[in-house]
Amino acid sequence: MLSDFIHNQVLIIAACTWILTQAIKVVVILVQEKRLDWNYMIASGGMPSAHTATVCSLATSIAMTEGMGSTYFSIAVILAIIVMYDAAGVRQSVGQHSAFLNRLLKEISLKSTAVEREEDFREFIGHTPFQVLIGALLGIAITWLWLFIRPLLA
Fold first, then answer.
1. How far apart are CA 53 and CA 24, in angstroms?
2. pLDDT tens string 118-145
3. pLDDT digits (tens, 9 = 90+) for 80-110
4. 20: CB partners within 8 A, 6+ apart
5. In angstroms, what is the C-alpha Rg of the chain?
6. Which of 20, 72, 81, 143 could connect to 57 by a Cys-Cys bridge, CB 3.0–4.6 Å?
7. How far apart, in Å, are the Cα atoms of 4 and each of 14, 55, 115?
């Protein structure tokens, strides 16, 4: 049973896709902001969407191993749609609200000395539609390379 879990190729590909996509975030921040921040290896939000890459990798690997007509593929596609909608819709809105609240609280604290705050609300939560698109393309590409190209090299 544990052996099945450890050798589950679909699971391994999805997990490796998540790790690789999170590592790409670290590189993107390094290039954009000229700083190395390892926190992006576990952070949500930003470019590209690792959640999207992971679920698209999952759906792609199921399509390539089980077929697009399988029940598993149907489940993975619905899951991917929900995750992508959440990433670009709900979580993006939460990030925008956090930014507004942080600005508002700073203005209030400048006018009053009685306002005490421990830390800002986290603004780096969701994704733009472009970040979700890039995540989806990465998830599909990584999986395709893993399942199609890798056996040719062996």
1. 11
2. 666 555 567 788 999 999 999 999 999 9
3. 999 998 888 766 666 666 667 667 767 666 6
4. 138, 142
5. 19
6. 143
7. 16, 21, 55
Residues 38, 26 contacting (CB under 8 angstroms): yes
Query: Which residue's entry shows tokens 């998830």?
Result: 139
Contact between 48 and 136 under an 8 Å Cβ cutoff? The reply is: no
Question: Which residue, 16, 7, 9, is CA-closest to 50?
Answer: 16
Residues 6+ apart with CB under 8 A from 15: 54
Domain count, the chain: 1
Query: What range does the domain containing 68 cover?
Result: 2-153
Amino acid identity, position 28: V
Cα(93)–Cα(77) distance, rounded to whole angstroms? 23
